[in-house]
Amino acid sequence: MANAEELVKRSRKVAFMNVSTTAIATFIRMTKFTEISKSKNPTEYSRTYVDEDGEVTDVTGYSEEISYNFDQHIGNLVHKKLADIADDEKTGANALVEILQVDLTEPMGDGYKARLRTYSTVPDADGDSTDAYTYSGAFRKNSNMTIGVAKLSADGKTATFTPSQEVAEYPVTFIVKDSVENTPIENAKITIDGVSYVTDATGIAIVFLDAETYSNITVEKDGYTTQSDISVTVSNGAVLKEIELVEA
Fold first, then answer.
1. Which segment of 48-62, 106-120, 198-212 scores lowest on mean pLDDT?
2. SS3 category, 12
């Protein structure tokens, strides 16, 4: 009997920050954040060839960004580190942070699959709430991603990380069309491992994924029959995936 599908809660994918001032990493849980949301920000190269109709576009790179917002708490070492970067207007290497993202839905041995990357901290605003002192900004990619295993402490507040490989992410271009009219479908929702993306006016959504096989991808749009068994394999380059939806 097949296992029933389970909703992935936001709290099942958690982040830790290295707050150590030595070469030995100390990953502390990033708590009391009201926002930690990721954007891939692909870089596009568009041009028109004389022997073709219309413009063509390729993705030539990407710059991952994580938006953050937190209510400052005294005694929280992560908050202290980020507040100091903003308040002291630190730049360059002094504004770099290491963030370990742990996926609690993917156990590996006695730990969980985790991804480590260095980011530049780009503060935006602080003190714009009358209830709590808040800080907001973004973490922007400053290194390649390293995949490994994270082991959490008994209380889940700290983590250790054992790297296994440094990997690149590759662009996967989803093109969603009407099965009869062959026209692009705008605002179709594509859900991969609990994260959703939306197609643009051309029916395209570009997603950056690690090199592995993804199954049970869901594509849905009001007025169309939902597809929930789509799979895609990412190996060592860009992938194009065309999907046709049938009107309900």
1. 48-62
2. helix
